[in-house]
Structures are given as C-alpha cells and as structure tokens.
Write the structure tokens for this entry.
Amino acid sequence: MIRELFRRVMGAIVVLFDALSPASLAMLLDQSKGTVALPLGNIHSLLDVTEEEDRLIRLLHPSFREFLLDSQRCFNTTFCTDATEAHRHLFECCLRVMSSCLRRDMCDLRRPGTRVGDVLRAVVNKNVPFAVQYACRYWVYHLERSDVDPQEHCGIAEFFEARFLSWLETLALIGRLADGIAMLQLLETRLPVGTPDPYSVLQLTGGF
C-alpha cells in the first residue's frame, strides 16, 4: 500500500508540467495532505518540500527526474517511474477534478458581462483552487503523453458535454484562454480523420 502510494505521488511529481504545493497535489490526486506527505517524509534530500501548505514541491536535482524515468538506470521498482502510466493517472485526476469542481460563474461574480480583466487575481485564486487551475491547463497534455485513446474514453465526451463552457470560463479567468484553443487543436489530432471531434463544439457555440 505504502509502496504503491509512493509510486503514485512520486510519479506525479516527476511528470507534472508545473510545480504544485502539497495541498494542491493532494487535491489533484484525491488524497489527504497527510497521505501525500507520508511517502515524501524520508526523501527530503531529493525534494524541496516542507510542511508549509503553499510552498511548491520541487526536485532538488533536475537529473533525478531523468534517472527515475529511465528503467535502464533506475532498477528500484519502488522509485522507477513509468512516464506513460504516470501521465495516464494524472490525466484521470485532472478530468475528475474538473468534472467535480468546474461550474458556471466560478468566482460568484453574479454580473454577466464582467470583463475578465476587472476580476482581481486574488479573487480568482480564492475561488479556483490551484489544483483546478492546473487541471484546466494541462489535462490534454497529460492525455497526449498517456496511452489513453480519447475516442474510446467516455469521460472526455461527458466532460465536454457537461463542463466545456465552464472550462473555457475558468481558462479565461486565469488568463489562459488561448491555451484552450491549442489544447482543442491538439486533441483534434488524436482523433481519426472524419470522426466528430471536440473542436467542432467551438463552431456550435459560436467560438469564443
């Protein structure tokens, strides 16, 4: 149990596209903060991690990431990280977080037509947890690096049907709306030619 937890947590840290705090990582992985901290307690020489909830977890030695991802060099199965598996796990975590947290009017502005630029960043961060921000920005990139077939994954279609506009709204609030277009275009390349794709949703909704 501890061994599998360690692999899940370390695997996530190794392949994350942006550093997260212990609290944000726990939310993303759907674990308690104590559970996430448990497997990291004995490797402080390799990680910059403290009990401070807002401090980002970082690898102290960049080469350690390459070592853990290389099965030809890392023979310890507890430490060795399968990048494809880790990305698949994080993709599923991102999809779960977005599906459970995204909603209309994330910042409770209750003022239709409010300019994104008029919303204070502090208000956004208070209402949109960093784990949710991370999921919105990177879920497609984790999907791309996993072995998940988007055409066969029913959760993706359900997400676009139920949370598509909320996802775009959240990206706009965190100043990453352009990333949404790039992700949709990337997702389109993963689908067979001639099949309906999520990018067509933009056309149906009149674009941005």
Notes: Confidence is low (pLDDT under 50) at residues 202-208. The radius of gyration is 18 Å. The longest strand covers residues 47-48.
